[in-house]
Design goal:
Blueprint (H helix, E strand, L loop, with lengths): L9 H24 L4 H22 L5 H6 L6 H12 L2 H14 L4 H25 L4 H9 L2 H34 L3 H16 L3 H31 L9 H15 L6 H5 L5 E3 L11 H15 L3 H6 L6 H19 L2 H13 L12 H6 L1 H8 L3 E3 L13 E4 L2 H9 L4 H39 L5 H24 L5 H25 L5 H23 L13 H19 L5 H10 L15 H6 L5
């Protein structure tokens, strides 16, 4: 029996949880050997993990504002690092990133560079200092630092645009996994995913999301790494394949050259289902030039340091010092998955095209491939497709197509692993998508309920009413996100990249200059947010409708254009208008001191600041 406070017993609690989850995997493996069907295993994995997350969410319910918005600022650094990693490693990271690398080659490695490198910016420029302010949300910081409801409202708008774009991708990922695991239509599966997400966050807010995300990280990292090590060992690439990546990539190059590549005609491609890509490496604007790689990495770095749901995680730590340490742990836990994504993409492609492996399909007859159970499963899910374009009855490189989000989910089955591993991967993918969706929906709902409703509309609202508004908003925003996701307007990875671009366009420089430039004022911040986001949206529409981009910036890197406009307009407008008052400038000086109490709780006589951002520190 565990005694004492929950916070003090976290290692024991999650140690028991991890042991229990491993025990469940073993139980499912035994069930498979005894004749348990693949569908039953998939349903069991998804249902069991969702039940655990919902239970944690229920047990973490709260009626206190500081617990709901910032988990009471009691989350230890290691566990906050795990929660941040789960919040960060979205459905895009788990489900779609390996697929992007699989089809687009090294160019999509820019995502790994940008998404991990962005945490260097978070650690050095923002996280400790935003924590020092002691606010509840990112718009709360903007409203406190610059003063006035207009700046606060602009920050809420940018946050909503970026986070809503992101959350549709996560609900898309949960829908994809639920549709395969539960064998239901995608359009209904997205709502199953939404209900699962709301069960985790609705009653306990940030406190529930935090402890759920720690549990989800444990599931997703086991689900991602175990198949890689197993497949690598089975293929002879070594138990720890990361060190052999160069050799395996070279092997893929040799095989592609050996089999040759016949370019598909327009008529051929017209018959391929929407969203599927060819097995061979596609060349795109992503990896066309060094600048394309650098610009994508740069956009992802700046976007990382601008996303509100990431910044919110560092508001939950006990101190400024803890916030800085928490960033380091976050990067470590993220690295465990990100360093493995290229290996998974490589092993997946080798499994399919290497004729020396029993799983290789290139060169086999169409009848043989169509008889494979894994192909039948994924073909029925509209995520795999073959067609005899060349008319010789033998499957060639240009005749196999697969959806990018199927690479991670289908690889264990393709490699001939027990189906229990496929069920585990589905559970891991759900955990990754749910954890990020939880944080994103909470970020939007908290910003609107706290910064719009409480700060602007009804400053005298009681805590119970504020939390009721936040919970209603969770449902409304989640339902809207699921409805958009069901339309499949954009792929998972594309939607995520757009979210980073939107966030950096409107928030990166208002946040960074808010900490590091005392002369930045309200007028400049408003100009930076409005013109930055507006110009980014204009540029995206311009490129999408056939316009020629500037400086090689594409629809994946349009945020650089928006951020440049934001920076210039913010600096120019700030210099042309009056400087912030002495109180604000003194507050900026104090926030850079890496220790001590939060700025908003330090001086009771600073009533204006206290009114702008109350803290229960």
């Amino acid at each position: 029996m565990i005694k004492g406070k929950f916070i003090d017993n976290l290692p024991k609690v999650y140690g028991i949880y991890t042991g229990g989850f491993i025990g469940f995997i073993i139980l499912m493996a035994i069930g498979e050997q005894m004749g348990m069907t693949a569908k039953a295993i998939g349903v069991a994995f998804v249902a069991f993990t969702i039940f655990i997350y919902a239970l944690i969410g229920y047990l973490s319910r709260t009626a206190q504002a500081d617990a709901y918005y910032v988990a009471g600022r009691q989350v230890p650094t290691v566990f906050n690092g795990m929660a941040t990693a789960a919040d960060w490693m979205s459905g895009a990271s788990f489900v779609a990133m390996a697929g992007g690398i699989y089809f687009k080659g090294y160019g999509y490695m820019a995502l790994l560079v940008g998404w991990t490198g962005g945490y260097i910016l978070v650690a050095t420029l923002l996280a400790p200092y935003l924590r020092k302010f002691g606010c509840y949300t990112v718009p709360d910081f903007v409203g406190t630092r610059y003063g006035g409801n207009l700046a606060r409202l602009c920050a809420v708008i940018v946050l909503t645009v970026a986070s809503f774009t992101y959350v549709t991708a996560q609900i898309n990922a949960t829908g994809t996994i639920a549709s395969v695991a539960l064998d239901i239509d995608f359009k209904y599966a997205v709502y199953i995913g939404l209900i699962s997400i709301l069960l985790c966050s609705m009653l306990g807010g940030m406190r529930a999301v935090t402890w759920t995300q720690v549990a989800q990280y444990i599931v997703l990292i086991i689900a991602y790494l175990l198949p890689i090590f197993w497949i690598s060992n089975k293929m002879g690439a070594g138990f720890f394949p990361h060190f052999m990546l160069a050799d395996e990539v070279a092997r893929i190059g040799e095989l592609e050259q050996q089999f040759g590549f016949i370019k598909n005609s327009a008529a051929d491609l017209a018959t391929v289902p929407k969203g599927l890509a060819g097995i061979t490496k596609a060349h795109s604007a992503v990896n066309a030039t060094p600048w394309a790689f650098i610009s994508l990495a740069l956009a992802m770095m700046m976007g990382t340091a601008s996303l509100p749901h990431v910044m919110m995680r560092y508001f939950t730590t006990p101190s400024v010092k803890a916030a800085r340490k928490s960033v380091g742990w976050s990067l470590f836990f993220i690295f465990l998955l990100y360093s493995s994504a290229p290996m998974l993409a490589t092993l997946s492609k080798l499994s399919l095209i290497d004729p020396t492996l029993p799983t290789g399909i290139i060169g086999k007859s169409f009848a043989e491939v169509q008889a494979l159970s894994w192909f039948q499963n994924w073909n029925s899910a509209n995520l795999m497709f073959i067609s005899d374009f060349n008319g010789n009855g033998t499957l060639e490189l240009n005749e196999f197509f697969m959806g990018g989000k199927a690479v991670v989910l289908a690889t264990p089955e393709i490699a001939g692993l027990p189906y229990v591993i496929s069920g585990l991967v589905a559970a891991g993918g759900m955990a990754a998508a749910m954890s990020t969706a939880d944080g994103l929906i909470l970020a939007i709902a908290n910003a609107i309920s706290h910064d719009v409703y409480y700060k602007m509309i009804d400053p005298k609202a009681e805590t119970a009413k504020r939390l009721l508004v936040a919970r209603v908003l969770l449902v409304v925003i989640g339902f809207a996100g699921a409805t958009i996701a069901a339309m499949e307007i954009q792929g998972i990875l594309g939607s995520v990249i757009w979210a980073f671009d939107f966030a950096m366009s409107g928030l990166f420089f208002p946040l960074v200059l808010g900490v590091w430039w005392k002369r930045a004022n309200r007028e400049g911040a408003v100009a930076g947010m409005v013109l930055g986001l507006g110009s980014a949206i204009w540029y995206l529409v311009w490129v999408r409708t056939g316009g020629s981009g500037f400086l090689g910036l594409t629809q994946l890197t349009f945020g650089i254009f928006g951020a440049a406009v934001s920076f210039v307009s913010m600096v120019v407008v700030s210099l042309l208008t009056s400087a912030p008052d002495a109180t604000i400038q003194k507050m900026v000086d104090e926030v850079r001191i890496p220790s001590g109490k939060t700025v908003t709780g330090k001086r009771s006589e600073e009533r204006r600041v206290g009114k702008e951002c109350r803290s229960r520190w």
